Automatic annotation (TrEMBL), chain A:
Transmembrane intervals: 29-51
UniProt keyword terms in alphabetical order: Membrane, Transmembrane, Transmembrane helix
InterPro entries given in the database record: 6-blade_b-propeller_TolB-like
UniProt xrefs under Gene3D superfamilies: TolB, C-terminal domain
Protein name per Swiss-Prot or TrEMBL: TolB-like translocation protein signal peptide
Annotated segments matching region Disordered: 1-22
Recorded superkingdom: Bacteria
UniProtKB/TrEMBL annotation, chain B:
Main location per the UniProt record: membrane
UniProt-recorded name of the protein: MFS transporter
Compartments where found: Cell membrane
Annotated segments matching region Disordered: 1-26
SUPFAM superfamilies xrefs: MFS general substrate transporter
Pfam families: MFS_1
Record's GO cellular component terms: plasma membrane
Stretches that traverse the bilayer: 50-73, 166-183, 195-217, 253-274, 286-307, 314-334, 405-424
Domain Major facilitator superfamily (MFS) profile: 33-429
Molecular function terms from GO: transmembrane transporter activity
Entry keyword Membrane: yes
Amino acid sequence: MTAPATADPVPAQTPGPGPDGSSPLRRKLLVLLVAVLLLAGVGIGAVRYAADRADRRDQEQAGGPPVHEGTLSLDAAGGRRLLVRNLAWGPHRDEIAAVPADAPDGPRTASGVTCLRFHAAAGTGICLQAEHGALDDTYHASVLDASLHEVRRFPAPGIPTRARVSPSGHLVGWTVFVSGDSYAGTDFSTRTAIVDTRSWQFYDNLENFRLVEDGHPVQAADVNVWGVTFADDNAFYATVATGGRTHLVRGDLAARTLTTLHQNVECPSLSPDGTRIAYKKRVDGADPAAPWRLYVLDLATMTETATAEQRNIDDQALWADDRTLLYSMPGDYGSDLWTVPADGTGTPAVLLRSAVAPAYLG
Amino acid sequence: MYLADARSTKSDRAADAAPDPRPGRRAAAVPGTVLALGAVSLVTDVSSEMVSAVLPLYVVSALGLSPLGFGLLDGINNGVGALVRLLGGHLADRGGRGHKLVAGLGYGLSALCKPLLLLVHTLPLISGVLAVDRTGKGLRTAPRDAMISLATAPEHRGRAFGVHRAMDTTGALIGPLLAFAVLRVADDRAERSGYGAVFTVSGCVAVLGVLLLVLFVPGRITRAGLPAADPAAPGPTLRDALALLRRPALRRLTLAAVLLGLTTVSDSFLYLLLQRELDLPAHLFPLLPLGTAAVFLLLAVPLGLVADRIGRRTLFLLGHAVLLGGYAVVLSPLHGVPAAATVLLLHGTFYAATDGVLAAATAATVPDGQQGAGQALVGTGQALARFACSLAFGAAWSLWGPRPALAVTAAALAAAALAATLLLRPATPAATR
């Protein structure tokens, strides 16, 4: 507070009182007030518009599939059925719902359990959920028993994107997106975790596994792992990205290693017979906004086969059986599920509207 | 703390923004112009951090896109950002109202980008809009710091920059809170319209920031005790801007900032190291930047005052010693949450002791007419050096692993700090006058 006194007055550039006697400051504050009111009006209008639209989504959509509340089981018994996150508008939106595998257009049975991402096998479910806190969203992975009750919950550090259960139901894995911290940050990264539901051992970040490329250990700061698919209760496949390239890796849980097998593979999905991987391939010459196509890799010969789906794909495909792939495409209500033969023949067809995150049971 | 400052000087603010001609009036502790610029930065940071906070969620949940491999543009952005910053600083020095004009363009450009986000739905386009937003930031940074320098008596610049940085960081902390509040009210369920509301509100907040600049930041910055610059005087040419480097004090400061920047690990890498080397649970990762920001916010003003007392160069060097301490904790056998909290405390202190302080130190080495170019030069040198450090650190991590890479960086930081101490020690009185 020892600022020097002004020695010489600042030359008069100071506006005096306005013609109406109000000071310039007063006028400025008035302008500010009017602007704040206007801007607040626009902001409140935008928020109310969005809220109205959100309310409409709780009303049942015309022509949408009928959805009833009911009980779901993740057991093998009860016939073959498809479980999805239901996106059809209405009170059961975002809930895990079941349809008979042979009548996917039929009525859906909603479970009351809400998940962003979901997968299930052999009586175990993995459900990635958001918690809307007062200050921000947080996420967790919830391991479900056969009656869809939470058995255990694990914290997840970002936005859920992929989830898988091993064929035995013993292992669950998931991937979330973590965003960077830089100004207008665009440096996204992933965190992939696996839990053994028998011992509850929690591998919270597969980036800490040893990465082996062409027989040599590799370390890099920019390693990202995503899209786990399980072979058995120890081996799994996933995508590892480093140095701007993606690799298919084979993971060994006990040895804590990831070994690269093939380049340019994202979101692998292992066929039920364990011989092929369906995946997203980044193709040359495609629109940079939509560069991925659905491919199948034969693990014995490492030959790649393009499927008949020509559009960009952004999903971890699911094998409906050893011949057919199931995947999501953008739809009128978020996303629809499509099928295409895995051998490159046929044409894509819609299986189920307004649904995402499928799993077959029974 | 700065809030109390702001409140106590509120009545002086108007008088300072439109200087009172009455003789004998004492200059306010923190000039009104600085508070006005602080308010502009606060509001603008609320706006931009609203977008940053929900953007990943928007891209993944509402657009259903995978954002990986999306950061590739960051390197190009850094380079362009540096050039734009130099340009902004130089242009701002030309003409009497240049600083306000160029800063206004920068804030305006970023404000325009918010409604644009409502219209683009693919990653390349979103990333293009973010690049323009960043260009706006590059453009406005140097003129803004120049205006803070010009408005403040030299002996109080540490405090003035501290107040500004504290207000700026406050905005960055409020932004995400406001964004999620909007999402709560509008729509929790990850739909496009909910994010549309966030982008619209963010745009409105950004416009408010520009308006605050237009209304309350004077076009010609004057400070108590000095006559206003002669408006008829010709603005500095590009040659004059380059000639700045012939000033030994500025050259030494730039060199010191570059040397230290070359050994300053980026925030992203530091947080990654905390998680990997200190065995921090993965779910705490999103909280790490908040820790740094909170400490920066709390210490920016007190350390600004310390800088005025003991000298900006000294504190700038001490700040890097604190950072070295942070590296040492990461390299030590300490583990877990307490160790990470200690590192964040040191990291936030480092920012509080160096960020605004470097700007204050720069202000003392350049003439008033070239504050914009001077601030741009030092700031750009530091930013490019840090970017080079990121590239080198990433390579060293791949080559040797994270621990050895940090150990080497720590050794280099110690050497750079010694060199910088020698560089900055002969503080010739002429240079600071």
